[in-house]
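Protocol step 4 of 5: obtain the predicted structure for the target chain.
Materials: sequence only (see below). No template structures provided, no constraints applied. The aim of this step is simply to have a reference model before the mutagenesis design in step 5. Sequence pasted as it appears in the construct record:
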Amino acid sequence: MRRNRVGQAVDLAARRLMLDPVISDARLQQMQAAGLWGDDLIVDHFDRNATRFPDRVAVVALAMESQRETRLTFGDLKRLSDRMLRVLRVLRDRGIGPGDVVAVQLPSWWHYLVIYPACARIGAAINPLMPIFRQRELRFMLGFAKTKLLIVADRFRGFDYPAMIEEIRPDLPNLKHVLVVGGDDPANDLERLLADDPPGGCGGRFRAAPFGQRRDRADVYLRHHGSAEGRHAHTQYPVVQGAAGAGAVSPDRR
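Step 4 output (structure tokens):
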């Protein structure tokens, strides 16, 4: 049986990261024969929900430190993710492409649901990293994965993440780009890059996006866990549920 797109994606990641595929051909065939796995990628479900339910609230996120609430519809997620894709395509011309690693060190913020589909579309692997990791852990994790793009918070619980990255960046020769959520520099502040939609570009001045004030339930939730023991790292990727599934966004409690 010819491997479908899911199997091909696993093969690509395995080749680039020098890992054995976790999902074997036999397992793929078994699940496909049972009708449990189709040929759709996560971005296919993402796009269908955006088309069918553009005005339905998908995400309700609460930043505990600032008490800032962000509500995003499926249509909002699609528009923001398309802008993130454009940012990645610009960076692709500067050395980021299929199989490359995009590391994201953020709390459980809504940005994951914008970054992940964009990475999937260009074939990049996303590596979520817990905000508690510091220089020692990041030197190994970013270096081992040959990370080319890193996305961090400007500040979280009083810690300066860009300053930490500048300290260890000489030890990370593969790290080509760093984007900051909530940064002061318009050139690398992710929210500013996502806020405007100028033709042919990905920049623009920041403005608060009109994400709506509806109070109905959310249909997409983000759950992110990670741990590191010695030289072993494990991450659990963000999950997007279908519009029919119940969901909620938990406040960031880190």
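Step 4 remarks: The chain has eight helices and ten strands. The radius of gyration is 18 Å.
Proceed to step 5.
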